[in-house]
């Protein structure tokens, strides 16, 4: 047994309202730079839909992830090492930027500088790649809320096999949201695909990163990742990916996508796993056995033998304690309601999902709950709007049994809470019928519905004491202002421009004026109380 | 050596050593200072149809051309004679294989240059140094192909192994034969000069990606783990080039 720790995430799809707040905050923090305009480390897809980039889930087209060769050995689906080196000049499996959506901005200057007149000026779209006018045809969220679904959604690879049943007609349509980030897999095919060895998995917390200094832009990771969550920065010529917000995680804070999620549907915590079992699990012959195989890789942090082995492997005590309280372990292993996304890619992903029940529940409510027949809670689960087979294609390589089990458990939690609220009698056997005790279902209710901040995020801070000691030494040796461009390096000291030039005035709330670059006197809104006079707030334009 | 003019010495001794020096020092500097900029800067994301043909053909053709130069320039004529290869056999092998490589290289570079100049998405990623390197490469390729096909394959042949090659090897043994190269046909002289210029430009352009061909990938384990290591922070001013400033063009 070789114990390692991996931070992981569980998303409760029941609660996702598709608001894209996670995408926006992630974008603002990580990819608001030139070259990453088209990149969303976190994106939210409407399912069914072709996804971002288009049809990324179809590995017969993109050859991402792993596959078993004829002898049952684990191989990169895109081919072996030699083949990678020989196709390095042209990667046959790489999506083009049109598959993600050609990034664009607008000519906002036209709006600002348009002369007074009767016609409304319009800003036209400009390609972020060329700076020239362009026609917008596709973007990362162009099928949001099933927009264009009659045309596109049939291209969803997960619909394979259930085309006849699922009709994309408006009155029978189903949808749910699937927020996606990098899976930080236990067996990452992007890392295995990188010829330069620039990608790595951090030994302490399992976060998968790209070393920007060692990446040589061979772009094999982009095609190697079956989730297409490694991106190519077209300005720097280097690969970039979701960092699991490691600076925040190291400080014990949740990732930005989790922190800002308005539905509070994300859970963060540790898994302890047996690194020696990873490859065997990934090479499970039957793809539908991969979910169980991955569960068998995880170790029970409550087991004293595991704790001892973890301590021996150098995992700090507070990390083992955190692993015992880990909400992702609770959801994935103890309650078994979270499932991996596309386990058939054999990467052993570490961002798991609780399949959505809400549309089911509506049907149940519509059918009416009959206390005499508690099984009615489950009666309609196979007559759902979201076909169980569709969810199975997403989360269990097509095996509907685990999906049914999870949905029944979630329905039972609701039935129990509903009965408690309304004072209804409840079949005592209901918890047992979903393979749980009443206490366990209550725990699940607390974790899913109450979802306290400190229960959702159990993140032990990184141990960087040694680095801190070196930094302290460093600061004694060097002036701390000697950062690049800092005042100690002859950079801007006092004065300067922008926010740095702001100095509070004597009168509180009075604001102050400054000379703008165009020579006019402008008013600084910073510190203004909104009541005092504000000379220069509106530029005096030429009267026309 | 005694009869060489100042211009000849500059052109056939000083310039090669200068560009060689720039080549070596430039690479050391770039490696230490600019790991972040050290990339092939692929544009396959923006354009794949032309690249699919242009890039493999150009690169494999270039490998063949480099191998040809090793055989023709680095290996002295007397060695091939010593192992019993007569001059006509060498010449026709050189002309035949050289022509094949030449066709691949010129075909590939035509596609790649077309793409770089006329596909707006690719053109937008092209820096000034890329144009310099591209023009120099075009000169080298054209002046290399013309004698290979025009003289050695179709014409009477020219034994560059008696003039250009000894001079080139002499540069590395410290006694370059100036007269040999100075009396070679003009096209070889242009070819050699442009080649030296490419060496000089090399460390500052995307050509550096050639040294990063990841052969190590064949042996290393698939999954790479890295442990946290406490290191001293960079001393001020030695952090290297990090992210480019936002909003700055390529």
Largest Cβ-defined interface: A-B, 66 and 56 residues
Number of strands of chain A: 17
CATH class of the largest domain in chain A: Alpha Beta
Helix content of chain A: 25-40%
Report the mean per-residue pLDDT of chain B as an integer: 88
What's the pLDDT, averaged over the residues of chain A? 86
| Derived structural class of chain A | alpha+beta
Unreliable runs of chain A, pLDDT <50, ≥5 residues? Answer: 490-501
Shape of chain A: globular
Distance between the termini of chain A: 81 Å
Number of domains of chain A: 3
Strand content of chain B: under 5%
Q: CA-to-CA gap between the ends of chain B?
A: 46 Å
Query: How much helix, percentage-wise, in residues of chain B?
Result: 55-70%
CATH 4th-level superfamily of chain B = Transmembrane di-heme cytochromes, Chain C
Q: Which strand-content bin applies to the residues of chain A?
A: 5-15%
Rg on CA atoms of chain B, Å = 21 Å
Q: Strand count, sense and closure of the main sheet of chain A? A: 5 strands, mixed
How many strands in all of chain B? 1
Main location (chain A): other
EC number (chain A): 1.7.99.4
Enzyme class (chain A): oxidoreductase
Subcellular location (chain A): Cell envelope
What does this structure look like?
Chain B: Residues 9-228 form the NarG-like domain. Chain B: One of its GO terms (biological process) is anaerobic electron transport chain. Chain B: Keywords: Cell membrane, Electron transport, Heme, Iron, Membrane, Metal-binding, Nitrate assimilation, Oxidoreductase, Transmembrane, Transmembrane helix, Transport. Chain B: Heme b binds at residues 59, 69, 191, 209. The complex is a heterodimer of chains A (544) and B (250). By secondary structure, chain A is α+β, with helices and mostly antiparallel strands. Chain A has three domains: 3-103 and 138-259, Alpha-Beta Plaits (2-Layer Sandwich), CATH 3.30.70.20; 271-456, Alpha-Beta Plaits; 507-537, no CATH class. Chain A is built from 23 helices and 17 strands. Chain A has helices spanning 21-30, 59-62, 81-86, 97-100, 108-113, 149-152, 189-193, 220-224, 246-250, 256-259, 278-282, 290-297, 304-312, 317-324, 327-334, 358-367, 376-379, 388-395, 400-422, 430-433, 438-450, 453-456, 465-477, and strands at residues 3-12, 43-47, 66-68, 74-76, 104-106, 125-127, 176-180, 199-202, 208-210, 230-233, 238-241, 266-274, 298-299, 339-340, 351-354, 510-515, 521-528. The longest helix of chain A has 23 residues, at 400-422. Chain A starts with a strand and ends in a 16-residue tail after the last strand. In chain A, 44% of the residues are buried. Chain B has one domain (6-210): Transmembrane di-heme cytochromes, Chain C (Fumarate Reductase Cytochrome B subunit), CATH 1.20.950. Chain B is built from nine helices and one strand. Chain B has helices at residues 6-33, 49-74, 77-82, 87-118, 120-123, 128-153, 164-173, 178-182, 186-201; one strand spanning 225-226. The longest helix of chain B is centred in the middle third of the chain and has 32 residues, at 87-118.
């Amino acid at each position: 047994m070789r114990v390692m720790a991996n931070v992981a995430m569980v998303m409760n799809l029941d609660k996702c309202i598709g608001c894209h707040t996670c995408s926006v905050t992630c974008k603002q923090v990580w990819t608001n730079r030139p070259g990453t305009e088209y990149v969303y480390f976190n994106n939210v897809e409407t399912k069914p839909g072709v996804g971002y980039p288009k049809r990324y889930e179809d590995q017969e087209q993109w050859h991402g992830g792993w596959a078993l060769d004829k002898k049952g050995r684990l191989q990169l689906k895109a081919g072996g090492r030699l083949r990678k080196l020989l196709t390095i000049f042209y990667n046959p499996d790489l999506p083009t930027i049109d598959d993600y959506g050609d990034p664009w901005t607008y000519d906002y200057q036209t709006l600002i500088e348009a002369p007074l007149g009767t016609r409304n000026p319009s800003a036209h779209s400009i390609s972020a790649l060329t700076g020239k006018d362009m026609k917008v045809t596709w973007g990362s969220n162009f099928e949001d809320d099933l927009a264009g679904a009659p045309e596109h959604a049939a291209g969803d690879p997960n619909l394979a096999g259930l085309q006849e049943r699922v009709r994309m007609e408006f009155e029978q349509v189903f949808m749910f949201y699937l927020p996606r980030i990098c899976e930080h897999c236990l067996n990452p095919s992007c890392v295995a695909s990188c010829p330069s060895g620039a990608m790595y998995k951090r030994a302490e917390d399992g976060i998968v990163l790209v070393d920007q200094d060692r990446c040589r832009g061979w772009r094999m990771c982009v095609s190697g990742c079956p989730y297409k969550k490694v991106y190519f920065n077209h300005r720097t010529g280097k690969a970039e990916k979701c960092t699991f917000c490691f600076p925040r995680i190291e400080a014990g804070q949740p990732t930005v996508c989790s922190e800002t999620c308005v539905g509070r549907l994300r859970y963060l915590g540790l898994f302890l796993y047996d690194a020696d079992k990873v490859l065997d699990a990934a090479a499970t012959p039957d793809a539908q056995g991969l979910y169980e195989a991955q569960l068998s890789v995880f170790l029970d942090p409550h087991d004293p033998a595991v704790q001892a082995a973890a301590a021996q492997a150098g995992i700090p005590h507070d990390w083992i304690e955190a692993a015992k309280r880990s909400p992702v372990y609770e959801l994935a292993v103890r309650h078994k309601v979270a499932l991996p996304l596309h386990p058939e890619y054999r990467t052993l992903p570490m961002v798991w999902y609780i399949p959505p029940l809400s549309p089911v529940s509506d049907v149940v409510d519509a059918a009416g709950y009959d206390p005499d027949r508690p099984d009615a809670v489950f009666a309609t689960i196979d007559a759902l709007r979201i076909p169980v087979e569709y969810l199975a294609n997403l989360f269990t390589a097509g095996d509907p049994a685990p999906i049914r089990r999870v949905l029944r458990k979630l329905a039972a939690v609701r039935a129990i809470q509903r009965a408690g609220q309304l004072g209804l009698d409840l079949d005592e056997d209901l918890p047992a019928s979903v393979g749980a005790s009443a206490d366990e279902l209550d725990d699940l209710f607390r974790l899913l519905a109450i979802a306290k901040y400190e229960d959702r995020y159990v993140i032990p801070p990184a141990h960087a004491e040694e680095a801190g000691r070196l930094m302290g030494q460093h600061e004694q040796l060097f002036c701390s202002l000697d950062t690049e461009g800092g005042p100690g390096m002859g950079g801007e000291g006092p004065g300067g421009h922008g926010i740095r030039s702001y100095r509070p005035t004597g009168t509180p709330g009075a604001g102050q004026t400054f000379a703008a670059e165009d020579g006019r006197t402008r008013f600084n809104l910073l510190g203004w109380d909104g009541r005092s006079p504000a000379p220069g707030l509106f530029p005096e334009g030429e009267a026309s | 050596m005694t009869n060489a003019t100042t211009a000849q010495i500059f052109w056939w001794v000083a310039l090669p050593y200068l560009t060689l020096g720039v080549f070596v020092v430039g690479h050391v500097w770039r490696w230490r200072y600019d790991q972040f900029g050290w990339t092939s800067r692929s544009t396959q994301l923006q354009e794949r149809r032309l690249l699919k043909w242009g890039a493999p053909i150009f690169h494999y053709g270039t490998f063949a051309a480099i191998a040809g130069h090793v055989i023709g320039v680095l290996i002295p004529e007397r060695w091939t004679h010593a192992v019993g290869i007569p001059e006509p056999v060498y010449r026709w092998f050189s002309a035949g294989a050289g022509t094949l490589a030449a066709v691949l290289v010129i075909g590939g570079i035509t596609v790649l240059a077309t793409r770089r100049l006329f596909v707006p998405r690719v053109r937008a990623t092209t820096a000034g140094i890329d144009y310099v390197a591209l023009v120099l490469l075009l000169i080298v390729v054209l002046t290399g192909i013309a004698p290979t096909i025009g003289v050695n394959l179709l014409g009477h042949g020219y034994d560059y192994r008696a003039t250009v090659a000894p001079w080139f090897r002499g540069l590395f043994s410290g006694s370059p034969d100036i007269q040999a190269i100075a009396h070679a046909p003009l096209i070889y002289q242009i070819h050699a000069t442009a080649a030296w210029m490419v060496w000089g430009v090399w460390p500052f352009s995307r050509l550096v990606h050639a040294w990063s061909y990841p052969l190590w990938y064949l042996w290393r384990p698939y999954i790479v783990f890295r442990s946290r290591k406490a290191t001293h922070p960079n001393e001020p001013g030695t952090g290297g080039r990090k992210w480019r400033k936002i909003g700055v063009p390529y």
